[in-house]
Design goal:
Radius of gyration of chain A: 19 Å
Helix content of chain A: 40-55%
Largest sheet of chain A: 8 strands, parallel, barrel
CATH superfamily of chain A: Copper homeostasis (CutC) domain
Strand order of the largest sheet of chain A: 1-2-3-4-5-6-7-12
Shape of chain A: globular
Oligomer: heterodimer
Strand order of the largest sheet of chain B: 7-6-5-4-3-2-1-14-8-13-15
CATH topology of chain A: TIM Barrel
CATH architecture of chain B: Alpha-Beta Barrel
Radius of gyration of chain B: 19 Å
Number of strands of chain B: 15
Largest sheet of chain B: 11 strands, mixed
Number of domains of chain A: 1
Shape of chain B: globular
Order of helices and strands of chain A: EHEHEHEHEHEHEHEEEEHEHHHHH
CATH class of chain A: Alpha Beta
Structural class of chain B: alpha/beta
Number of domains of chain B: 1
Order of helices and strands of chain B: EHEHEHEHEHEHEEEEEEEHEHHE
């Protein structure tokens, strides 16, 4: 069995250096306007070139995230971008759009394609299909992981690499099959310098911003609270089982999180994965992950208010102002104060 | 109306409850999509198990050439045995086809059950002409595009692919799908025992007049999509296949809605033939009739959203709700 690898997020050259220093095997980044993150968490085209060079120098892989459901008219531009970075030496591309997958396979047959979580490939039929398309790996839906190792085993038997989210937001609905944010909060804003014509706020599947409607306060009958919010995504304590079931890539989500936190998540998960057969050490790493994830959830809710006009100098300034305090809060001193995690969550408005 | 050959347009409808199938007036229906694909365990679901599928086929026997069976959305591996048996059985029935909700399922049906025509549902993630063409190459006939596409995009696809476009024109439409049931968040196995709580209508209110309906594993739009006033524009643009999203509607409502849409479409086509526009007073009368089915009001869905619109100054303005 091939050694499992860790895929780490990158939203700047500095973050790329940090995650590589902390043991990432593969890194991924999105170009401004073209991936499933607000543009402040994507990289410029120049930065992308530097990140590719960095990964190549370190002999690590770099994947480019082209994982939105684009408009038909945008597909030629998306393909041009992929060609440009393939030429520059990118190791592969993460794609959701089925038409784009076929185009990449036809025009760049040597470029590995990973199918994004947006596809929600939940069974062997899907794996068989993507194998027939020449895809190298498929990211499994975040929802299904904790209930069906049996399912993962069956899918792994089909001969494609399987990737799961080791750390990620706890969404309530299937990625790529949720338009709740678009339905409730859709706005369209003109081009804000990303190179795209404009950004769609609320259309999370389509390069817009997700308002995490499933985590917001709502009312059902006479009950009010976070009623559609599901439990937390917590699969890192299942890592030994997942490796045994056939998962070969573990993804850390977090392009939107402070650099230091991503670095700590990366380092801790590296330790956890490498020590998966040492129960004592493994448990210690799981405990550390628990703390980091507690903090991550706080920030996850907070990044929402950074979204509007995210590229404007005003929001950039605000972001800088809060980023440093958040980094300081990753200190275990803060997290170990009784009730602190709850207070932070309360401040962030993600708990009742 | 009775002669299919002469029709310049077609209407399809989805039906979620086996007992309702018998009450549908099939003279107004060109294609009927049977089954609630989001959760097999819903009340009297025509696709709950093989027995239910057989019963559906029995009920719809005189109209099998107009009936499509919807397959489950995102089944997990242990459900595939059931899906396989269902497909094998359907191949022997002379049914019109099946509705799939992913490329993998379309691939499977095309490879192993080629006698079944394949259509795709709104959660199949068919967002572009190129994606439509990939499915077309797997002999997929047509289907419903994701609801978040606007008309401009759908028109582009229409002009760049020969896939059949079934444009939704009425009904509550799904906006999110989960593997978990909101009524049973503690359940981590599927299928599980449930009390069919989703038979009750549950409204989720986010404030500011933002609401959705949740039915266990799926969230639907609160307001009803209604494109009746835009039928003339749609016909003139060349759209000719229309879908009534009937999963949350009763048979009586479906029959009435189909009649109203047919009347309006016939009026428009007659007016177009004379080089005129349809009488707006007649349309207004028909809208009035539809209002009783939509206590929470109508919406245009995402059809008229377009890129470049500046909503940001009106932060709480939105069009889909």
């Amino acid at each position: 069995m091939e050694k499992p690898r860790i895929l780490a997020p990158v939203s700047s050259l500095k973050m790329a250096e940090l995650v590589l220093d902390n043991g990432a095997d593969i890194i991924y980044a999105g170009i401004k306007g073209w991936s499933l993150r607000p543009d402040i968490f994507e990289v410029t085209r120049e930065e992308m070139e530097s990140i590719i060079d960095l990964a190549k120098n370190r002999k690590k892989q770099i994947f480019i995230a082209m994982n939105c459901f684009y408009q038909s008219r945008e597909l030629p531009d998306a393909m041009e971008l992929i060609k440009k970075y393939a030429k520059r030496g990118v190791s592969g591309v993460i794609v959701s759009e089925i038409g784009l997958i076929r185009a990449v396979r036809r025009e760049l047959p040597d470029l590995p394609v990973h199918v994004s979580v947006q596809i929600s490939a939940s069974n062997s039929y899907e794996i068989e299909y993507y194998k027939s398309q020449g895809v190298k790996a498929v990211v499994l839906p975040r929802d299904m992981i904790d209930l069906s190792l049996e399912n993962i085993r069956a899918m792994a038997g089909k001969g494609l690499e399987l990737e799961v989210f080791a750390v990620g937001d706890d969404t309530s609905n299937y990625d790529g099959r949720c338009q709740l944010s678009a339905y409730l909060f859709q706005q369209v804003v003109p081009d804000n310098g990303t190179g795209r014509k404009d950004m769609i706020i609320g259309n999370a599947n389509r390069c817009g911003y997700c308002f995490l409607a499933c985590k917001r306060k709502c009312r059902i009958g006479d009950k009010t609270g976070y009623l559609l919010k599901r439990g937390d995504l917590n699969i890192y304590n299942m890592v030994p089982d997942l490796v045994e079931a056939g998962v070969s890539i573990f993804k850390i989500q977090g392009r939107e999180f402070p650099i230091k936190l991503v670095g700590k998540l990366m380092r801790t998960f590296r330790g956890l994965l490498d020590n998966r057969n040492n129960p004592l050490k493994f448990k210690a790493y799981v405990r550390t992950m628990d703390d980091l994830i507690g903090l991550k959830q706080v920030i996850s809710a907070n990044h929402l208010w950074l979204l509007a006009k995210s590229n404007s100098p005003f929001w950039k300034k605000i972001r800088r102002q809060i980023e440093e305090p958040w980094d300081n809060l990753t200190s275990f001193f803060w997290l170990n104060i009784p009730g602190m995690k709850h207070i932070l969550k309360k401040i962030a408005g993600i708990t009742g | 109306m009775e002669n299919n050959e002469k029709k310049q347009y077609r209407i399809s409808v989805s039906v979620a409850i086996t007992d309702e199938l018998e009450k549908i007036d099939m003279s107004g229906v060109d294609l009927l999509i049977a089954g609630y694909p989001y959760c097999r365990q819903t009340f009297k679901n025509p696709i709950e198990d093989l027995y239910s599928v057989e019963k559906t086929v029995e009920i719809m026997k005189p109209y099998l050439d107009k009936v499509i069976i919807s397959l489950p959305v995102c089944p997990i591996d242990r459900e595939l045995v059931y899906v396989g048996r269902m497909l094998e059985y359907l191949c022997t029935t002379g049914i019109h086809g099946v509705e799939v909700h992913s490329a993998g399922m379309a691939y499977k049906v095309n490879a192993h059950y080629p006698s079944l025509r394949t259509y795709f549902g709104c959660f199949a993630n068919v967002y572009t002409d190129q994606c439509a063409n990939v499915l077309r190459d797997m002999n997929v006939v047509g289907g419903v595009f994701p609801y978040e596409l606007n008309l401009e995009e759908i028109e582009f696809i229409k002009n760049h692919s020969d896939i059949e476009i079934w444009l939704p024109v009425f009904g509550n439409y799904p906006v999110a799908f989960s593997q978990y049931c909101y009524f049973h968040p503690e359940q981590t196995d599927y299928p599980f025992h449930c009390g069919k709580e989703c038979s009750e209508r549950v409204v989720v209110d986010y404030g500011d007049d933002r609401m959705v309906i949740h039915r266990g594993r799926v969230i639907f739009s609160h307001k009803i999509l209604n494109m009746l006033t835009h039928m003339e524009m749609l016909l003139k643009k060349g759209f000719s296949n229309f879908r009534i999203a009937g999963l949350l509607l009763q048979a009586e409502t479906i029959n009435e809605v189909i009649k109203i849409f047919r009347t309006e479409t016939e009026n428009i086509l007659a007016a177009i033939e004379k080089g005129q526009s349809a009488d707006p007073a007649e349309t207004a009368k028909l809208i009035k009739k539809l209002e009783i089915f939509a206590p929470d009001g109508f919406s245009n869905g995402f059809f008229f959203t377009k890129r470049g619109m500046d909503y940001i100054e009106n932060f709480y303005k939105f069009s889909a709700v």
